[in-house]
Amino acid sequence: MPRWEEIRDDLFEAIMQVQGPLSKEQQEEIVRIMRDRGHDMVWNAIRPMQKHAGR
């Protein structure tokens, strides 16, 4: 059986692919959990950054 550390990133990506868009409430809960774990961030900091034109 693989260790958690070995599958965590792939499992997260798989869940996000089948989950679909998160509701506003889910986004707020994720931000709350991340803040509780010491990460000072908002939802916009979590979203993937869009590539800038010319880069």
Helices and strands in order, then pairings?
Blueprint lengths: L3 H16 L4 H13 L6 H4 L9
Helix-strand sequence = HHH
What's the shape? Answer: globular
Helix content: 55-70%
SS summary, helix count: 3
What is the CA–CA distance across the termini? 41 Å
Mean pLDDT metric: 83
Measured by DSSP, the beta-strand proportion falls in under 5%
Low-pLDDT ranges: none
Outline the structure in words.
This protein is mostly helical. The protein contains three helices and no strands. It starts with a helix and ends in a 9-residue tail after the last helix. The model has no long low-confidence stretch (mean pLDDT 83).
Write a short abstract of this structure:
The protein is an all-alpha fold.
Task: Name the features.
60% helix; single chain; 3 helices; mainly alpha; 55 residues; globular; 0% strand
